[in-house]
Specification:
Helix content: 25-40%
Largest sheet: 5 strands, antiparallel
Strand content: 15-25%
Number of helices: 6
Order of helices and strands: HHEEEHEEHHH
Shape: elongated
């Protein structure tokens, strides 16, 4: 570990012990993981959402980009829940970012790009609406008894609908 790679190796870690595998065996320690290396070509902060998560687009050495969501301290359970929901959706072919990894308070998912909903609605509202309805139909066809979160109740649905009406409906011209 050097000044050039310490940040990428240890950010977010409370403690990190690196030792030779034979030393760990002699001491009777079972490794929790194996560090094989890393390569990050770039990281760019992305716009957030209404949560306390912070999002970053990470460009890997081969040019591939992924999105990392960093949850606030104490957000390990929320990160695990969100990751489980993404896995649930991916297993059912839903139009969600595919989950790629979870480590404590960080989730990593496929990168869906930069296009904002507002731009799509202005450019082609019919296509945007058709896509949204297809996504809602796909969600409705899923058996929700296996969803890793509790079901929405009527009060929760009304709150979510109010947010949509406040923010999305004016953009769509509704």
């Amino acid at each position: 570990i050097s000044a050039g790679n310490a940040s990428q190796f240890s950010d977010g870690a409370g403690a990190c012990v690196v030792m030779d595998e034979t030393v760990a065996e002699r001491k009777g320690l079972k490794p929790l993981g194996r560090f094989l290396g890393f390569a990050v070509a770039g990281t760019v902060p992305l716009a957030g959402d209404a949560s306390q998560r912070r999002f970053f687009r990470v460009t890997l050495q081969d040019g591939t980009t992924v999105v990392a969501a960093l949850y606030p301290p104490g957000g390990t359970d929320q990160a695990a829940r969100d990751h489980a929901v993404q896995r649930w959706g991916a297993e059912r072919g839903l139009p969600l970012p595919s989950p790629l990894g979870l480590q404590a308070e960080v989730t990593v998912s496929t990168d869906l790009g930069d296009e904002h909903l507002e731009a799509v609605l202005k450019r082609d509202p019919e296509v945007a609406l058709a896509g949204a309805l297809e996504a809602l139909t796909a969600f409705q066809r899923c058996p929700f008894d296996t969803l890793p979160t509790p079901p929405f109740d009527a009060a929760f649905f009304r709150r979510e609908l109010a947010v949509f009406e406040e923010h999305a409906a004016p953009i769509a011209g509704a």
